[in-house]
Amino acid sequence: MSDQQVFDVPASSAARALVNAAQYDAMYKKSVEDNAGFWGEQGRRVDWIKPYTQVKDVDYTGAVRIRWYHDGTLNVAANCIDRHLAKRAKQTAIIWEGDDPSESKHITYGELAEHVGRMSNVLKAKGVKKGDRVTIYMPMIPEAAYAMLACARIGAVHSVVFGGFSPDSLAGRIVDCDSRVVITADEGLRGGKKVPLKANVDAALKQCPDVSACIVVKRTGGNVEMKSGRDVWYHEEAAKVSPDCPAEAMNAEDPLFILYTSGSTGKPKGVLHTSGGYLVYASFTHQYVFDYHEGDIYWCTADVGWVTGHSYIVYGPLANGATTLMFEGVPNYPDSSRFWQVCDKHKVNIFYTAPTAIRALMREGEAPVQKCKLDSLRLLGSVGEPINPEAWLWYHRVIGKNRCPIVDTWWQTETGGILISPLPGATKTKPGSATKPLPGVMPQIVDANGNVLEGACEGNLCIADSWPGQMRTVYGDHKRFAETYFSAYPGKYFTGDGCRRDADGYYWITGRVDDVINVSGHRMGTAEVESALVAHPQVAEAAVVGYPHDIKGQGIYAYVTLKTGVTATEELRKELVLWVRKEIGPIAAPDLIQWAPGLPKTRSGKIMRRILRKIAENEYGALGDTSTLADPNVVTDLVDNRMNR
Ligand code: WT7
């Protein structure tokens, strides 16, 4: 696929767009020349209780300090709800589409205010105060959004844990941020299958003695155990409290949420986002990248357990007074036309999903799409991993009918919002490229020695200066924050991604350059999967790498050395896959396990992952220099016994 295939901005997009090409250039120029001035103006898109006089206070060196709007106060929930009520009390805020196609409902801004008010008062009744952490482990039901907004309203810090994580993973995250209150549901429902959320919480809480309350939303009515003195039904508590709850005045730099994400080493880290800058950035990017206009129906298919759900299902759209669709189900239930049926049913204008979903649906052919009209769609988005040109072109032709621009949005949990993306009325697109930085974003590509490369080049992607949505710290470990992101290339934020820039100044993300893999748009640390594997009593050692996977983008390839005397059987292989599912969650389950009598190590005992990656990628002809290996024969065995896919 040549880089030269270029799609013009469709005339219809250009005509209605908030920003055209010339305006983008002017905005970008201003944002670089007067960064604080630019963000100072953008900051006024939200309502402040006490307006800021300071815009930016950032130092990427030394201990690293990042503050935006730091003398202002505001409340994020009031910005997402209260300030819209005069005009939008009767407008739909959330369209909820259930797992079962016969179930859906509309929640107006007026109703949202009451639901969030009640949830806020229930949390207060459970003793939650400003600054306390609350863990949310929920299915994709409106109460998940109410819970997040209720925390924001009373100044509590939420930590949403994706409902696909295991009890152990959940427990680790509860303990790390010392949550005393957990909000969950009896069961989730996905693709017609029940997810035992409350039972998982019960198992997790055995390891969390400090949790004093578990608030349970009734979703399926399935049987659950309620521990007296600790567990309460949300609907019973909600009936006892008022729907009115004053919004706490929060400093711009007070924490809004923690979201755990995988790194290349150690336990998942708690990415901390604060209130003012995050909200400004979520609102700004949601409006410009999706060219959001009054009355648009907007659908992001992510789960609120990931940052995409935080910024682009809840905070960005609601800050902008939009109608945001929340989908409980999966793309292929009851059949693989579900996404498109939902688009028709709710007249969706803006549709934002992940390449892995597009590839999976593409495999089903065009028939499931042809059943639907898709005539309401105006704009398509992609997020989470590089989108291969073939999937991009299919998305453009079959879903967008050659009419809808595609915004391939590059960003990270750490960035809080989109950093590199086309603007639909301004940017010509190239399939597979996230195109250009948004105003206020200053990417740099550096070589291994930290030299900044100019023009067309390839290297490691850094961002030279801050933007308001940037994470502020790793919860409880500021040193790890500075080391992880600011030590490799002093004075810059290092993203962990490799990137190429072409002669037109377009950015092409090439994937992670660290030991993080991206499975179906979900981030996994290879070290986490390895430690789950070695926790199995029959495993001596394990090394995990990514390999190209047709649907998932990357699959998980595990090399496992068994303890002496243990026989390698198909049964054990299956057991290890189940073991990792249980230890971390289904998203971490290895796709392939190869028995490895030994792992390639240097004489000092360091595993040479480069070699393992090559074998997993089927590029064992080009293993490079193996002369520093303690035992080169190990490699021959691994190549001979590599797994087929
Ligand atoms: C990593 C961040 C962005 C929210 C969801 C994932 C990869 C993300 C793209 C894209 C190429 C992408 C990067 C990044 N990534 N979007 N449009 N093109 N790669 O957030 O779990 O924090 O993962 O996802 O490798 O570093 P995350």
Quick summary of this structure?
The protein has 645 residues and is α/β, with parallel strands linked by helices. 31% of the residues lie in helices and 23% in strands.
Please characterize this protein's 3D structure:
- Mg(2+) binds at residues 534, 536, 539.
- Belongs to the ATP-dependent AMP-binding enzyme family.
- InterPro entries: Ac_CoA_lig, ACAS_N, AMP-bd_C, AMP-bd_C_sf, AMP-binding_CS, AMP-dep_synth/lig_dom, ANL_N_sf.
- The chain has an 8-stranded mixed sheet with strand order 12-11-8-6-7-14-15-24, with helices on both faces.
- The protein is globular and about 75 Å long.
- Helix 6 packs across helix 7 and helix 8 crosses helix 9.
- Strand 4 (92-97) and strand 5 form a beta hairpin.
- The protein contains 21 helices and 31 strands.
- The longest helix is centred in the first third of the chain and has 17 residues, at 109-125.
- The mean pLDDT is 96.
- The protein is of the alpha/beta class.
- Bound molecules: 5'-O-[(S)-butoxy(hydroxy)phosphoryl]adenosine (WT7).
